[in-house]
Amino acid sequence: MALGAGICSAVAVFAIAFGSVLAFPLFYLAPLPLYLAGLGIGGKGVAFSMLGAICTAALIGGIVLAVPFAIGYGVPLMTACRRALENRTLPNGSVEWYPAGGIVAILTLLAAGFLVLAGAWVALDPGTEALQLTVSAFLSEALTTMAGQLPADSRVSLVEGLAKFFPGMAAASWVVMHIVNAAIGQNVLVRAGRNIRPRDTYTALVLPDWFSWFLVAGSVLALVGPGDLAYIGRNLVIVLLVPFFLLGLAVTHTAVRRLKLGVPLLAVFYLILVVFGWAAFAVAGIGIIEQWVGIRDRLPADNDRESE
């Protein structure tokens, strides 16, 4: 089962090369079989699913594709599953599992680390220009290939806007992809009765206290760093805001439930998130305030929970 899950995952990743309409959703859901195997079987599930996935990637595109696949999918899978299945027995006999917020924080730091290493690799290459110019050249070439019908001036404007934040947005999307697939996989396993880790309550999400200092460091680097360092810092901030965005969503769900504002208001909230991209930064701001001040502690108590 784990080997089959790995094969399915690798095929889903590289289906985008065939130009199918379903390629993008398959690409985004490619980690799901891996997390089903890892969270449902355990360490052996992680090992055999990655073996099947890496061998399949190597058969499709050789070592050139197998190595990036192992880094982009194998490293976060092993990290997340290892932490998710980590637990300890307390003196009272209850079992305490590694907190979900800690897993989110570690995955985000992995993405931030990859971003810094990639930036350093490009910056240290004597044949390359400044990081932002290198990213602009990459995006320009990609848009020329994928959207050659766009007018040249529109393409230039789009590249200039995207290049400022593209590495951070790509890394943030990578983090969200793994978190979403891990959450879906865990829910599927819970419903099937095949889960190892108990179901987590999303509204109870808590980030480690130490994580805020990475956001502070990235912000300082973006504000006072010279040249490429400021560029890396700016994009690091985007990645490091992902856990705070998720925390802001948890606060919003808690507020809607405790204040009994109803599901329609929550639907409007998500509609605003989809239509207005800047709203995501506002939600992340709510998450930062929650981390430092504690908004949920100041909301009215959940009477239904108390009665239970």
Counted by DSSP, the helix tally is 14
The radius of gyration is: 21 Å
The backbone outline, from C-alpha atoms, is globular
The helicity comes to over 70%
Structural class: mainly alpha
**What characterizes the major β-sheet?**
2 strands, antiparallel
Number of strands: 2
Distance between the termini: 40 Å
Spatial order of strands in the largest sheet: 1-2
Mean pLDDT: 86
Order of helices and strands: HHHHHEEHHHHHHHHH
Strand percentage? under 5%
**Unreliable stretches covering 5 or more consecutive residues:** 304-308
Short recap of the structure:
Helices cover 74% and strands 2% of the residues. The protein has 308 residues and is mainly α.
Written description of the protein model:
With 308 residues, the chain is mostly helical. Helices cover 74% and strands 2% of the residues. It is built from 14 helices and two strands. The protein has helices at residues 2-14, 23-28, 31-41, 43-61, 63-84, 100-124, 131-146, 152-163, 166-192, 211-224, 227-258, 263-275, 279-292, 303-307; strands at residues 87-89, 95-97. Strands 1-2 form a two-stranded antiparallel sheet. Strand 1 (87-89) and strand 2 form a beta hairpin. Helix 1 packs parallel to helix 4, helix 5 (63-84) runs antiparallel to helix 6 (100-124) and helix 6 (100-124) runs antiparallel to helix 9. The two termini are 40 Å apart. The relative contact order is 0.09. Mean pLDDT is 86; it is low at 304-308.
